[in-house]
Every structure is written in structure tokens, then in C-alpha cells.
Amino acid sequence: MIYLLRLLEKEKRSFEELKGLKKKLISYGLQREYGLSPEEIEASFSGALYLKKYPEIHLSTTGTKGLLGVALSPCPVGLDAEHRRPGDSFVEKKILGEKEAFWYRKAQDKDEALLKYFTLKEAYGKALGTGLSYDFRNTGFYFDEKGIKSDLKEAEFYFLDFCEEFIISLCFMDRRGKLSSGETVKFILP
User: Fold this and answer.
1) How far apart are CA 85 and CA 64, in angstroms?
2) Domains of the chain
3) In whole angstroms, what is the distance from residue 170 CA to residue 47 CA?
């Protein structure tokens, strides 16, 4: 299940306030899906949140300007969202493999394509549990109007295309997490 919280940009929020909102969003999902309380959430040394007493429940969080999200799954999961913005040549060089760079150069909307590559790769890193510490260029993604293709056969990837302001990508490391319908995404307004 994926829960997304749309944040209105009326005021700047502190890091601590955003962290608190993210924990509340996780707690909301845990209560609705599993009947668990927020006391079950723990943080690793790197700051990643997890459920020590319930290793069968995997979670991933994301945050970007105007949006917080959490994914809960029976298998390792990664969720990443980015607010749409212009591309960055540094990011392009850091994340695109040779074949991806070829397809990227042919994209009609390079900014969108770069954000899609980035969110897919970050979601994959979160599902792996490595975050940004793996070599982004060693993964291959190819996408078109039919969906996402990847050389990563152990994973399923999705774009959540229901909000024009954001690029949102999801990765499941197992077929148990396969999205079957729009019913699996809950969009929450404050």
C-alpha cells in the first residue's frame, strides 16, 4: 500500500516537522493495514525507518517539495518522488549508463526523462537497502508509453502517474508486491 501526503506550500517546514509528519504517515498506514501502533517504528544508523518486531513488513519513505510518501509491502520496496524541475548535467553524468544516455539524448522532454531515471534508480537503491551508495550507472532502464523495461529481472517497477507536479517511482524486489490496481495508492490532503 502506498500513502502520499500532499503538503501545501503556504509555509516552510523544519526538518523535524517533516520527520514528524513522515512518522505520522507511516503510523497511519501501519494502523490501517496491519493494526500496528507507531511505537513499532525504529530508525537504523543511517536514518532509514523499519519495523524491528515485524521483519515481514517492509517500508520505504520519500519526501520532496510538497509531498511525503510511504510504501508498505510484504517484500522489500523502494519509493521515490521528485518535484518536477529542470535537469542537471551533474546528475545526468552520475546516474545514466551508456545505453540509457543514448535513449536520454533522444527523449522529447529531457527534464522529465532524467527525473524518471533518477527516481527509478533511487527507488531501486531503497528496495535493495543500499540507498544511494550503489553505482547508479550499473542499472538499465528503458521506458515508453507501454511502461518500464529494466535489465533488473528481480524487481518490478512502476511510475505513479496521477499527479502532474511529481515524478513518483516504485520498486518491488519480489512479485508479491506487484501493483494490481489504483486501489493500492491513497492520496491524502492535509
Assistant:
1) 11
2) 2-188 (3.90.470.20)
3) 20
Give the three cell numbers for residue 109.
Answer: 522532454
List Cβ<8 Å contacts ≥24 apart for 31-34. Answer: 32/1, 33/1, 33/72, 34/72
- pLDDT, tens digit, for every residue of 54-73? 888 999 999 998 899 999 99
DSSP assignments along the chain, one per residue: -EEEEEPPTTS---HHHHHHHHHHHHHHHHHHHH---GGG-EE-TTS-EE-TT-TTSEEEEEEETTEEEEEEESS-EEEEEEE-----HHHHHHH--HHHHHHHHH-SSHHHHHHHHHHHHHHHHHHHT-GGGS-GGG--EEEETTEEEES-TT-EEEE--S-TTEEEEEEESSGGG---SGGGEEEE--
Query: What digits encode the pLDDT tens for the residues 125-149?
Result: 888 887 767 777 778 888 877 778 8
Q: What angle do CA 34, 30, 32 make, to 5 degrees?
A: 65
